[in-house]
Q: What sequence folds into this?
């Protein structure tokens, strides 16, 4: 009977599930194990479903295991893959970790793209990495009346924690906040301090919509700039769409009606 | 006469709002193609705003599909030069405007903190004299870097004819510097840009190269030595305004890369803005975008694929093939080098296979250390075989029975259809066709092509 661990779709949950699954396969010698997430399980026959007891301790142990045996590069890819929306990402990561035991140099695991699970982790991490990169480009801040720079976005994957460090370095002397509308999480950064992740709590739409007068002026300037920088003779909306798909444009100043 | 006209223009600029100036000076700057923010990695030092990312970031895309990475503006369009192709030439009756250094700083800072831009691209028409213009640019950059503590990306144009000392000072404030070569031949320059000379363009280029080389040594010896154009220098050529062959252009580009250590050469399809007897007649076909596209493809072959200009084109065959990209074209003429065995061929040979990008080649080289590869493995790895399959063997076998015959392969390649950038024969500044990598959805973070 295949055992399937069920956990929350969060980093700690997934890592705890990996901890249990790893023990089941490597220590107890069970041939197969799976990981599914609460809320998106398709029941299968001949499987037993076990709830995972999530803890930071388990998560930390798995992190150390990956860092020590697979190296920093693989860790980064696995972390990115774990932020993906794919419901089978847990299986792919577990499969990759198990495959690494079979090859001579486990730090080379991410080159072993012939293996379906490794390839899947690679693909997921590329997908998440691309989205992170695009949000670094397309996220837009606006100055609120109280002077705080506020940005909101609707990512597909849970990329907020990958996006935040970039802005924490770039705008280290600013007070800013990013709101992830898909997963209802915030990153808050106070000038000169570390950023913090806050989940839960509702957004005060009134405060978040109250932009300063200067903000309006600069939005208009930016609008004007993006209009006049385009060359009429080379107009090419298809090309623009390819680089900047419509779903990214929702909160971008230059595509809002003025 | 000039004097009076210039003062007349000055009066117009005095009561212009920043909004109007921005419109005029953006419009005037848009024909410069370089809008890259790549080439340097710099973390914030905690004293100001901004950092730089090696791969560069494109913050938006304009209606023409070109990326908007930097605030691309002219400092002024009050120009004393009379370059035939340029919209700001002194003989054109257009609205003139000038920024002040403070306005440039304010716009840059406020756009930057909203994450609209990656930095500033500052070019300029020549106001009064090249030296005077360069001083104004210096003043703007000095304020931005030292008073506003801006640590983002700055790309600045060196004005041909400005004193080298001024150019050098500006270089210590900028990340990338460029002097536009404009035309591949000295003759073209003389005819179409009578106030510029080859010497005035190449002298600052050589100076930037030498100072940058010295600076690399200084930075190694003294950790806190100021950086001189850390992202290197680039240049731009106009395509289709002077009667130059593709071979001449590519040849010049190659020597610029080799002899002047340039990071990039940009090609800009000529856009008809002025009526002038020195310029080619208006044809109604629009700018030569396919030619520009082929030049970028060939440029990539020079920089990343170990090709030389004389392999791609020659005196006898000086222009690009309309139907095939330069790499396909080379392969078809050198069928004796194919097929290439995936499991044994050297990296450089893999790079020469049509349809294989350098990412795919790197992945093949890494993956074959772990096990033998066949065509299914290649597909899994994201290698696109549409064109490559005519030139590859895996373990001695081709994917399908294939005749190594020029006509046969050419016909089949034509059937696959080259993916030209969107639009009829349009192009973009991030050409995708050499990097077909559909399996993993692009991977833009790793291969941002604006480098």
A:
């Amino acid at each position: 009977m295949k055992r399937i661990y069920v956990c929350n779709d969060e980093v700690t949950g997934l890592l705890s599930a990996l901890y249990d699954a790893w023990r089941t396969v490597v220590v107890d010698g069970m041939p197969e194990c799976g990981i599914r997430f609460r809320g998106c399980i398709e029941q299968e026959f001949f499987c037993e479903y076990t709830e995972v007891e999530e803890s930071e301790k388990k998560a930390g142990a798995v992190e150390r295991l990956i860092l020590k045996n697979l190296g920093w590069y693989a860790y980064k890819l696995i972390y990115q893959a774990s932020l993906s929306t794919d419901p089978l990402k847990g299986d792919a990561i577990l499969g990759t970790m198990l495959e690494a035991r079979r090859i001579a140099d486990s730090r080379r695991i991410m080159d072993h793209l012939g293996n379906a699970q490794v390839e899947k982790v690679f693909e997921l991490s590329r997908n998440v990495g691309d989205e992170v990169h695009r949000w670094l480009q397309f996220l837009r801040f606006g100055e609120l009346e109280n002077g705080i720079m506020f940005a909101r976005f609707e990512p597909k994957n849970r990329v907020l924690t990958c996006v935040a460090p970039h802005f924490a370095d770039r705008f280290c002397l600013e007070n800013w906040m990013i709101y992830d509308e898909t997963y209802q999480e915030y990153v808050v950064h106070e000038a000169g301090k570390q950023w913090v992740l806050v989940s839960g709590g509702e957004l005060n739409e009134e405060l978040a919509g109250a932009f300063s007068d200067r903000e309006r002026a600069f939005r208009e300037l930016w609008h004007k700039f993006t209009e006049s920088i385009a060359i009429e003779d080379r107009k090419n909306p298809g090309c623009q769409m390819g680089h900047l798909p419509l779903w990214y444009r929702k909160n971008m100043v230059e595509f809002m009606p003025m | 006469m000039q004097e009076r006209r210039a003062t007349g223009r000055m009066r117009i600029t005095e009561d212009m709002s920043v909004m109007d100036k921005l419109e005029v000076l953006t419009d005037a700057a848009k024909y410069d193609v370089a809008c890259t923010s790549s080439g340097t990695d710099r973390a914030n030092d905690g004293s100001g705003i901004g950092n730089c990312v090696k791969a560069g970031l494109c913050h938006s895309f304009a209606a023409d599909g070109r990326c908007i990475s930097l605030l691309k503006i002219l400092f002024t369009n009050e120009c004393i030069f009379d370059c035939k192709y340029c919209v700001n030439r002194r003989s054109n009756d257009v609205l003139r405007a000038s920024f002040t250094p403070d306005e440039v700083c304010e716009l840059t800072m406020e756009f930057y903190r909203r994450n609209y831009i990656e930095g500033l691209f500052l070019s300029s028409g020549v106001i009064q004299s090249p030296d005077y213009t360069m001083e104004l640019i210096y003043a703007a950059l000095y304020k931005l870097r030292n008073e506003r503590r801006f640590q983002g990306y700055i790309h600045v144009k060196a004005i041909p004819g400005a004193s080298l000392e001024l150019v050098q000072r500006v270089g210590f404030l900028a990340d990338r510097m460029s002097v536009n070569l404009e035309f591949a031949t000295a003759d073209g320059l003389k005819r179409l840009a009578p106030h510029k000379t080859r010497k005035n363009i190449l002298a600052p280029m050589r100076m930037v190269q030498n100072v940058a080389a010295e600076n690399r040594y200084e930075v190694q010896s003294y950790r806190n030595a100021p950086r001189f154009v850390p992202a290197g220098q680039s240049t731009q050529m106009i395509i289709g305004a002077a009667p130059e062959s593709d071979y001449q252009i590519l040849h010049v580009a190659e020597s610029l890369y080799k002899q002047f250590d340039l990071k990039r050469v940009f090609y800009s399809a000529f856009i008809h803005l002025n009526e002038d007897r020195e310029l080619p007649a208006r044809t109604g076909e629009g700018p030569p975008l396919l030619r520009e596209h082929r030049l970028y493809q060939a440029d990539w072959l020079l920089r990343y694929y170990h090709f030389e200009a004389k392999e791609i084109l020659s005196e006898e065959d000086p222009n690009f093939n309309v139907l095939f990209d330069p790499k396909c074209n080379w392969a078809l003429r050198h069928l004796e080098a194919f097929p290439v065995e995936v499991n044994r061929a050297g990296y450089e040979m893999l790079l020469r296979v049509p349809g294989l990008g350098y990412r795919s080649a790197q992945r093949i080289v890494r993956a074959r250390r772990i096990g033998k590869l066949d065509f299914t493995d290649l597909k899994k790895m994201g290698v696109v075989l549409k064109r490559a399959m005519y030139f590859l063997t895996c373990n001695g076998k081709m994917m399908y029975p294939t005749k190594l015959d020029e006509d046969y392969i050419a016909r089949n390649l034509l059937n696959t259809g080259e993916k030209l950038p969107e639009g009829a024969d349009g192009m973009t500044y991030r050409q995708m066709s050499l990097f077909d990598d559909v399996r993993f959805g692009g991977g833009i973070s790793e291969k941002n092509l604006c480098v």
Notes: Chain B has two domains: 2-235, 326-435. Residues 2-235 of chain B form one domain. Confidence is low (pLDDT under 50) at residues 1-13, 422-451 of chain B.
